[in-house]
Specification:
single chain, about 270 residues, alpha/beta, Rossmann fold, 7-stranded parallel β-sheet, 7 strands, about 40% helix, oxidoreductase, NAD(P)-bd_dom_sf
Length: about 270
Amino acid sequence: MAWLKGQVALVTGGTGGIGSAIVRRYVAEGARVAVMGRDAAQLAALADTLGDAVITIEGDVSRYQDNQRAVAATLEAFGRLDTFVGNAAVFDYFTRLDRIAPEEFEGAFQKLFATNVQGYLLGAQASIEALRETRGSMIFTLSNSAFYAGGGGILYVTAKHALVGMIRQLAYELAPDIRVNGVAPGATNTPMKSLEGLNSRSVPLNQIPGFEAGAAQAVPLQRIAEPEDHTGHYVLLASRENSGLTTANIIHSDGGWEIRSAGAAKPRKA
């Protein structure tokens, strides 16, 4: 424990699922954490639970002013910033391109990319100066959909693929002062919401009938992840002592998706 003692992090989308798990793990590892989210009630509940180790900022990641305000609040409260974690995202409920009405496409595209791509870039832009002062790092939440088809619909998968290039380019532009890495979780038991109005059948990810069993059967390790299963990777990448020479790297945390068999998972031996 205490891999992050004395460090300060800013986590976007930090009120539920993987985001809140990262916040809790960072606090357990000795960090102080600023949490940015849109749900005031969830932010308040997190602050009540974790106390003085966290501050909360209500804001929209797609607006530069809100990201700038979050960084300023972090510096005011804790005096420094060591790690920016871009985590906020919305899903598209597996919606195919031919199921999106042409007249609705532009609006849906802009809304999803505003959160899933623009939000990461604006958060990075707002935190660069503070991270240069500490020679800190950026960590972004991707997905197995950043590398493989089928983990979402056309908008979500395209956005996640774009983030692979974003990480590599930012690592190139910001070296040697700031390390830039990512974590690519697979299917996770999380209440991730889909873009409003895109698909009338959409429900939070972990409420999809059969989601847990189907996700477990699709990978060699044969279980769905809990949000906490991914958090060690975020700790490792934030730690200067243990990842000081790691940049432009994306850690896969997906149960072995790349080596999955085509079809049903192989039965376990007795």
